[in-house]
Amino acid sequence: MTDISIPLPKCQHLKILTGQKALVTGGSSGIGKAVAIALGQAGADVVVNYHSDEDEAHEVADTITAAGSKALVVGADVSREEDVQRMFHQMLDSFGTIDILVANAGMQQDAPLDEMTLKQWQKVIDVNLTGQFLCAREAVREFKRRGVVDEISCAAGKIICMSSVHQTIPWAGHVNYAASKGGIMQMMRSIAQEVAPFRIRVNSLCPGAIRTPINADAWNTKEAYDSLMKLIPYNRIGEPEDIGRAAAWLASDQADYITGASLVIDGGMCLYPGFAHGG
Ligand code: NAD
């Protein structure tokens, strides 16, 4: 049965990120928007990166400002090295440093393998994987330069990569997307191993089905929603705020000993729901 009105948990916005400076890529919509707002409500000043929807990015910034934190809107294409470097320069000029990177920007260009063009393959890899590499590299440069500031955080910096359950679940018809997320998993773990001695934490969030524009076809009709529920034992779609709360916690010192981890947030989608009644 369809029930899309299940109440979400009330979120107490503890100021667990006070004094920290965060950058959220793709922060004008969906998961990135919810993450940017959650970090702002937790006390961080936030750079809201957008690619094409500047007005929405300013609305996100207004919400963060209303919560008492600073916000800066910066347009940049994360797949372009010069854009990423300009974005970081703007952030360091305005906020002085960076403590938290949420590499969230992502996209899909779906096609059966035998119809997928090299352009479709390359575009998704460029944005989803290379974009995270470029942003992580700039963030680590600043984390290493600055080091730990005790009164701000136990760590010299935190990176959260937005991955997906499709870093492990194969996805027919989405080979470029699944490959990009599988790549993020090993990129994240390798960076985490490399920079742990500098007290830099690197982790991934792996959402299941979250109600955002990227997957509207999977939830915006009753038939699609009912079909989706067959994959989700918890029997509701995820909301962007489910990811926002997790990002704020994972970026905070409450999660200080966690690095190289993938936190799956999927209402049980990875629990092989087809086996719920004996397989
Ligand atoms: P979305 O389409 O609302 O968000 C994607 C954001 O990335 C948009 O703001 C878009 O403008 C931005 N973006 C795209 N290309 C960009 C570029 N070149 N440079 C900068 N920004 C760019 O969809 P979403 O669901 O919020 O997706 C956010 C992330 O979450 C993506 O990485 C996606 O793969 C991941 N994710 C989403 C789901 C889901 O069910 N919605 C599940 C797993 C993972």
UniProtKB/TrEMBL annotation:
Q: Which residues form the Ketoreductase domain?
A: 20-222
Extract one GO BP annotation from the record.
Answer: monocarboxylic acid metabolic process
Gene3D superfamilies to which the protein is assigned, alphabetical? NAD(P)-binding Rossmann-like Domain (3.40.50.720)
Q: Which InterPro entries match?
A: KR_dom (IPR057326), NAD(P)-bd_dom_sf (IPR036291), Sc_DH/Rdtase_CS (IPR020904), SDR (IPR050259), SDR_fam (IPR002347)
Sorted alphabetically, which SUPFAM superfamilies does this protein's record hold? NAD(P)-binding Rossmann-fold domains (SSF51735)
Family according to the record: Belongs to the short-chain dehydrogenases/reductases (SDR) family.
Q: Which PANTHER family match?
A: 3-OXOACYL-(ACYL-CARRIER-PROTEIN) REDUCTASE (PTHR42879), 3-OXOACYL-[ACYL-CARRIER-PROTEIN] REDUCTASE FABG (PTHR42879:SF2)
**Annotated protein name in UniProt:** Sugar dehydrogenase
